[in-house]
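Extended Data, panel c. Modelled sequence:
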Amino acid sequence: MKPQLAHQHYVSTQVSTADRLQLVIMLYDGAIAFLARARERLTAKDATGKGLFISRALDIIAELNASLNFQAGRDIAVPLFHLYNFMTGHLTRANINWDLQALDEVVAMLQQLRETWVEVAQRCRRGELDDNPAGLEEPPRQHLGSLRV
């Protein structure tokens, strides 16, 4: 089996067996990784690569935004909705203006959110929280086929 095909199979298996909180964390990991690649391309003055990786991170942020359930988890969904929209605008400006600082600010926000979701997942596993504290819709995996993480 070719290494790339093996990696795709591994990722596919990870996604199909993950619970909804693990999927959210995986999406954050993907966005952070794509923005790290975008940062490399930005500093190398590679417009195509920068745009490609920022676009992939934006796709993930859009997926996170689409997975919010405002009926079941309004107290968490509304601030996340606004934060994801802020990130989208900030990354768009970073892409257009070659703004490394804006890109780094979004990465810092994503890392903080990721750490929070890791803590939520750990607390759920210990039985301290409901297993769907944010009122997430169906797991984001239903749309992940379009994303290349």
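Residues 17 and 23 are 9 Å apart (CA to CA). This feature is highlighted in the accompanying rendering.
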